[in-house]
Design goal:
25% of the residues lie in helices and 32% in strands. The structure holds zinc ion (ZN).
Amino acid sequence: MGFNVNPVKVYCKTFEEAKNAVIKIGEDREKLTFGIDGAVIKIDSLSFREKLGTTYKVPRWAIAYKYPPEAKETILKDVIWQVGRTGVITPMAILEPVKVAGSTISKTTLHNEDFIKEKGLKIGDTVVIQKQGDVIPEVIKVITEKRTGNETDVEIPAICPACGAKAVREEGEAAIRCNRYRMPSTIIKRNRTFCIKRVYEYRRTRL
Ligand SMILES: [Zn+2]
């Protein structure tokens, strides 16, 4: 019917074989063209399946093994600060591209200044990234043993990278904000959103 069927299937005769197959699939998972977070062990014999039966929810003849989230080492090449629609200035990590759980990651959010300080991140650092819930890549930690001495501190912006106004961090707030709330890029972005919305409405009325 044109469905893509998972080609990774191993027949095992003993528990030991099944265990090794699960380990092997886990080791090879980065070679797959799709991301996986586990493997399912199923009893092949139909008569055994019948004997084992099901609970009120799930069959007793199949069980899922979950792999730990895939973690990879890469280099933090740079940190750039981006201004969002509400004037919040957010750090973005530029990474040496690395394949994690089926996709290539070259950047990820660092959330805020505290996150950078908490992890002790420096530009040039070797970091471990992991896909949380196998969806959003996150910088987990720095491998300080791999420092060469050439790493540099992440600069916290004093001015807004979009308009040059003062960048401020209010007390009790995690975010750094552009002092000029109605700064040019915010207005441009807002107008763009507005225009897209209008175009969409226009199209909708035409349909
Ligand atoms: Zn600004």
